Amino acid sequence: MTDTVAEIQSDDIADISDYKTNSLWRLTFRRLFRQRSAQVGLVVLSILFFVAIFAPIVAPYDPTEVLIGKEDVKKRQPPCIHLLGCPEDQPQHIMGIDGNVRDMFSRIVYGTRVSLQIGIMIVVFAAGIGTVLGAIAGYAGGATDNIIMRFLDVVLSFPSLLLAIAIVFVMDDRSLFNAMLAVAIVSIPAYARVVRSSVISLREADYVEASRALGASNFEILTRRILPNALPPLIILATLGIATAILDTAALSFLGLGAQEPTPEWGTMLGRERNQLFSAPHLVFLPGIAISITVLAFNLLGDGLRDALDPRLVQAGKGDE
Amino acid sequence: MLQYTIRRVLLAIPVLFVVVLVTFVISRSIPGDPCHSILGEKATEEQCDRFLENYGLNEPIYVQFGIFLQHLMRGDLGDSIRFSRPVSIMLVERLPMTIELGVSAMFIAVLVGLPLGIISATRRNSFADVGTMIGANLGVSIPVFFLGLMLIWLFAVFLKDTPLALPPSGRLSPGITTVPFYEVYNLDPGEQLSLRFHVFEFIANLYLVNSFITGQWETFLDAGKHLILPAVALATIPLSIIARMTRSSMLEVLGQDYVRTARAKGLSQNKVVMKHAFRNALLPVVTIVGLQMGSILGGAVLTETIFGLAGVGRSVVDSIFSRDFPVLQGFVIVIAFMYIFFNLVVDLSYSFLDPRVKLD
To answer: CA–CA separation, A32 vs A302, rounded Å?
Structure first.
């Protein structure tokens, strides 16, 4: 018996908690898939990812290809769909032609790629830095915590869009990358706060004490014990954060501060054609609808995750909607 | 309570100072100098030197900051480089627009969002509930600028010659004028840059308020009509968030024991909901309302751009484009101060709403 006790090492304990983590994820996914909102979100997202990945196949034209000499099409021409009655001799453009005589449908399709990349990269960056800051602040406490939190408060004192605009200008180069960086910087405080509050409530846990007693370093405790349990709210925030990131970057692009021509970004498309609302509404509606659908899908997924991961609903068995 | 208030106000001061510092640093960090932005590409060295000296932009940066702080203490926000007008006057002209827009939007958001949230919670899984939740999800997913454009299209193009038509831009229709209240009532507005003048001008530029107190009903209606579309566009996101938050907060409260007790005592559903559940569900909602102010100020930038309204949001963006530092600094600082102040009020209201909240 004494041999068995002496042989228990931290590796074994890690195995046990790994097992628990697995079953939590499995439970979560099962509950997640049962929710209608998450189902819809996931379906839409799969379509979007498919379109983004297979854009060259889905899109009939190159998104930056100007069709002036190649086809007999007019600037800002409304959609021409053969199935719906457009004469066969005219080239088919499902969503019409944009202000620079390019196929709108192809631009929307490639825009999916751009937007998904934008959302994911911004969130990875902001969540990464935010987690580090929040974990340090929450675990260390005291002065470190205070300083980090005050710093984040200053960022939060400014309306996020205005601060993002200012950051883009400070970087002096209007590009998609700078817009993404600005939006990411402005998003960091939210992630930091969430991680910090999770860490604060988790650091008093018994298993943390146990690890400390076993001689684990602070870094080990944080990364192997606390942070994995702080993941659920972070994941929810990240999913919803992709939606916000896409919206904010589209807003900056709309104002002319984000993606520049000829990058097919939905916000830029909206911004450029916004005065054509009366004469060529399809150029305004289509990118807008695209943004809305994408953001909606991520929001639905995030909501589904939130409901699936909510511990209170777990107990009452009300997680299935 | 008073002690807590004083403490919070004192704690806010370093944050305010850092905000001022950061604003100053950011506005000076924007590359490109105002001389060439304002005077044009061909401005000569001498002209630029004189220009910079005029505005004190030749001094070392810490001296400039010191001067800036000094003036700030006196309430002097400097002069716009681009328009050669005092920033405070520009502020007084444009801030009312944004405030009218923001307040109307918040009003709509709360007035529609709260009841929707309550109804959703009390009639769970009903058509109203599902409909509201779908609507709320759509509300936060549709970009403000797109929603604004769609509303314009709907009400100014599609419904153009119907009685439902709404104007797509500006604050007043051509031909409608607004007479400041101090002219109507023969009050002396005071000297050009006095505090009294600023206050009077501020109120006079709140078109709805001004026309209401002077009885200019045509102006009042017109200004109101022009405000509907932008306010609705701006209100959509906060509305959706408030509805969702109210719903989940109410659901949580309705599951509590004291609600069961109230029902067991035989109280009508109405009384249970409004007297007991609602007040206690309000706390997280108030937090959200406070947080939404920031989003409204940011959304105001886009709304003002689309609807052609000369408000603070658009002025800030314009001043960034034209490197007009004084305007940028002054406006941003005022916005940030307002936001911090508003959050402070929200914080203080917690103890009012929930006596259990101990202020420490």
So the answer is: 10
Is A162 in Cβ contact with B313 (below 8 Å)? yes
Identify whether B80 is part of a domain. Answer: no
Residue B191: inside a domain: no
Whether B288 and B273 have beta carbons less than 8 Å apart is answered as no
Q: Is the pLDDT of residue A203 over 70?
A: yes
Is the Cβ–Cβ distance between A165 and B319 less than 8 Å? Answer: no
State how far the alpha carbon of B154 is from the alpha carbons of A272, B59, B101, B351, in Å.
20, 53, 20, 44
Total domain count for chain B? 2
Distance from C-alpha of A60 to C-alpha of A54, rounded to nearest angstrom: 12
Model confidence at A312, in pLDDT bands (50, 70, 90)?
low
A85 min Cα distance to partner chain B (Å): 24
| Same domain flag for B66 and B96 | no
Ranges of chain B whose pLDDT falls below 50: 360
Least confident of A54-63, A236-245, B173-182: B173-182
- For B125-137, write each residue's pLDDT tens digit: 788 888 888 888 8
Residue reference for tokens 């403490």: B7
B344 within domain boundaries: yes
Mean pLDDT of chain B: 80
- Give A179's contacts in chain B (Cβ within 8 Å): none
ipTM of the complex: 0.80
Out of A150, A158, A247, name the one closest to residue B336 (CB).
A158
Closest CA to B242 of B288, B295, B296, B294: B288
Report residue A9: phi and psi, to 5°: -120, 170
A71-128 tens-digit pLDDT: 777 788 888 787 777 777 777 788 888 888 888 888 999 999 999 999 999 999 999 9
Nearest to A154 among B15, B153, B317 (CB): B15
CB of A300 less than 8 A from some CB of B: yes
- Say if residue B230 is in the same domain as residue B294: yes
Instruction: Say if A56 is an interface residue toward chain B (CB within 8 Å).
Output: no
Best of B23, B27, B146 to disrupt the A interface (most A CBs within 10 Å) is B146
Q: Provide the pLDDT for residue A140.
A: 83
* Residue where one domain finishes, among candidates B27, B44, B73: B73
pLDDT tens digits for range B115-172? 888 888 888 778 888 888 888 889 999 998 899 999 888 888 787 767 666 777 777 8
What would the DSSP string read from start to end of B221-251? HHHHHHHHHHHHHHHHHHHHHHHHHHHHHHH
**How many Cα atoms sit within 13 Å of A296 on the Cβ side?**
21
Is B15 close to A153, i.e. CB distance below 8 A? yes
Determine contact: A165 vs chain B, CB below 8 A.
yes
Q: Identify whether residues B69 and B102 lie together within a single domain.
A: no
The predicted pLDDT at position A20 comes to 52
Residue B304: inside a domain: yes
DSSP notation for B121-166 = HHTTTSHHHHHHHHHHHHHHHS-HHHHHHHHHIIIIIITTTSTT--
Kindly report the pTM of this predicted structure: 0.81
Task: Tell if the CB–CB gap between B22 and A165 is shorter than 8 Å.
Answer: no
Taking the alpha carbons of B112, B115, B117, B120 in that order, is the dihedral positive or negative?
A: negative
Is residue A262 a contact partner of residue A318, using CB atoms and an 8 Å limit?
no
Residue of chain A whose Cα is closest to the Cα of B22:
A154
- Alpha-helical regions (H) of chain B: 2-29, 34-39, 45-54, 61-74, 87-122, 127-141, 144-152, 181-184, 195-205, 207-214, 217-254, 257-264, 269-271, 279-307, 312-321, 325-353
What pLDDT does residue A21 have? 52
Provide the shortest C-alpha distance from residue A45 to chain B (in Å).
14
